[in-house]
User: What shape does this take?
Amino acid sequence: MTVNFFEIANHLLKCRLSGSNSGHTGINGYCDLIFKANQLTLASKFILMSVRNLEPKIIWNHFEDLNAVPRPSKKEERVRQFMVDFGKSLGLETIVDNIGNVIIKKPAAKGYENRETVILQTHIDMVHQKNAATDFDFSMQGIQSFIDGDWVKAKGTTLGADNGMGVAAAMSFLSSNDYPHPAIEALFTIDEESGMTGAKQLDGSKF
Ligand SMILES: [Zn+2]
Assistant: This one.
């Protein structure tokens, strides 16, 4: 079951065109009712059906935050800044190496200082493809995901689950303090999908 935004928008548009929201009877009053009912329906369905409401919420919310940022291969400036801001907002050491990979380091939890450091590696670029009928500017627009039955899909474009879910999982380990962990070094490489330049030119001295 999905929320049909277009149908609701269409209703509202028709009502607007006929002069809605006046509180009058007749067509205007009817439109007011539709308007209010649709607002309620939309609000309740949105809460229930939002990708952000899926479990585990922490991962899906990081995924949605990430997917709001355009991130085609070779054009990672914005998503790199997003990752840097994310690391700094947590007060964690955040490094950008020469090629443009981001490394965020999280100290070990209390009692886990003597464990070996774990490196989590994911890539922040994604394959940007859209359906022929979809009007979409990948350099400006974020991915619009929605729930379709048992699936999370994107409206007319690639979803970015490769490697967005990996990035979201790594972000969850960095942002959560609900679990014991050794020191973590999260490596977010660039340009995996079109040359692997981030991985190939990684500066190993940063670890
Ligand atoms: Zn990939």
User: Anything to note?
Assistant: Residues 123, 162-163, 192-193 surround zinc ion (CB under 6 Å). The chain has two domains: 5-49, 54-206. The radius of gyration is 22 Å.
